[in-house]
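Example record

One chain of 600 residues, shown exactly as stored in the release files.
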Amino acid sequence: MNLRHLMYLGIALCALSVPVLAVPGPPRTAEYRSPVDVVLLKNDTWLVVANQTSNSVSLIETESGKVLDELPCSDHPTAIAACLDGQHVLVSCAYSGHISLIQVDGGKLREIQSIEVGFEPTGLAVAPDGKTAYVGLVATGEVAQLDLEQAQVARKFSVGAWPRYLAVSPNGERLAVGCSGESKIVIVDLTKGEVAFSSKLSGGINIGHMQCSADGKYVYFPWMIYRSNPINRDNIRRGWVLGSRIGRVRLDKQEYREAITLDVPGMAVADPHGIAMNGSNERLVVSASGSHDLLIYRKDDLPWEGVGGPGDLIDPKLMQDRDLFKRIDLGGRPMGMAMAQDGRTVYVTNYLREEIQVVDIDESRVVRHIPLGKRPGPSQVRHGEELFYDARRSLDQWYSCHTCHYNGGVNSKAMDTWNDGSALTMKTVLPLEHLDKTGPWTWHGWQEDIRDAMHKSFTTTMQGRPASPREADAILAYLKTDRSPPNPFREKDGSMSAAANRGQQVFESAEANCASCHSGRYFTDGKIHDVGLGSEEDEYVGYNTPSLTGIYRKVRFLHDGRAGSLEDVLMDYHSPEEVSGTRPLTDSELTDLISYLKSL
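Predicted structure tokens for this chain:
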């Protein structure tokens, strides 16, 4: 019997007796809710759940599992946080740019305030004073401080690219922010309103939820690491391509981060996302959304390593002590979690199973399933979404499509996928929006068949099994859906600013000459151009004109990521004088042109 069978045998037996609670509640339509985050209120009497695809918030009575109420909210709820009075929650609605303040009273939900913050608000944290909250603004690399009494933004401060999730210390003096776009944890001194220091995560991508220890000494978080080695079977299995980690960073002073490795040989962990600790800090729990796991650790005995560590594979000590490390197969896509006051019950939002899973971490089993509503019938698009987020489609389940194409977009690294037939020619990850309308594919544009490109991604980049014709149809159907947020750099009515309008004239001018290649609705002519940025190691000459839609979301530019900003692109590597032999842009032209590009 192999390792996989041993670890899951107990779970399969337990699952036979797990009750599913389907109790009467308010009328609910058959639609996907896709729960992503959850909080407990009123001494664990209520659960409040953020449902991403239905744009709603659900209120559940924990004892009965009954859905008491479901409230529509703004577009794309992503995180939820409990206010200290136990009667209100905050919900970040990333696509609408709002934070909803919702009251929970008498088994009902009521939105009492909507705070406009803009720029893709994501992670939330409420300060100990109960009057202040913080939200990461992914599109601008800022954190907004909210005055909850006045229901307004009190101030903003810059922290770095892609501040998706954050946590505030128990004394309210420090804020920890995971900036995935710059592979770092930023610690903000809240008394001064400025960054105190940052801790670099070399190769870090996709930093997940964050939680501070009760003593205020550390912040804990899961993340993934990319190692710039060619993607082949040996490198993948050694943990030399992508791997999963739990890290901790000091809140009070700058020290090198400490971490442990999560990946089990032959049965890796992928896309770690949520994190929770019980009140005694004895247990640390992490959801692995790509490999469908819940990981349970005895926190104080973990073999944390700093400089030079951790290793590429899980420390053998964790495999030898079943109380030090336990693993539960939850299926679906487990994401945000809430720990009950008893220190052993964890409520897990499962995005693809459309339910809350109640887990007893002492007994290592799912004890209840709480469905959120009527589920619709089988959907081709939903099946494609399941495949996109499923790391089990890769070799030994090391990573999913989402790992590199975060939510269908990009990550912050240039990677060597061997997709173009050459090794060690790093390429930035291309976004998958409007994929069916922006061929040919790959940076060199050599791939003219989208199905063949998908086949190569599964079998070469992921070293997994190919998608069947039915699976390929489902994935393409999912990728054709509109998954992009409204552009936060446009006016409220969707129009462009005055600067962006001036920038459009620069873009289309003969001097800038941008529109000669970046043309059409998606700003690509679908042709190959040699712009003098090639490498002798490249298998092909020239580069496929990339689409510019959603370019504000990127942090690395050009095929190999050599440019760290649009200013670098336009003033140096890809300037009009370099590419077209025209004149340099003036400062005002550059400013306006960047405003236009961010609005695309």
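Notes: The domain at 30-158 is CATH 2.130.10.10 (Methylamine Dehydrogenase; Chain H).
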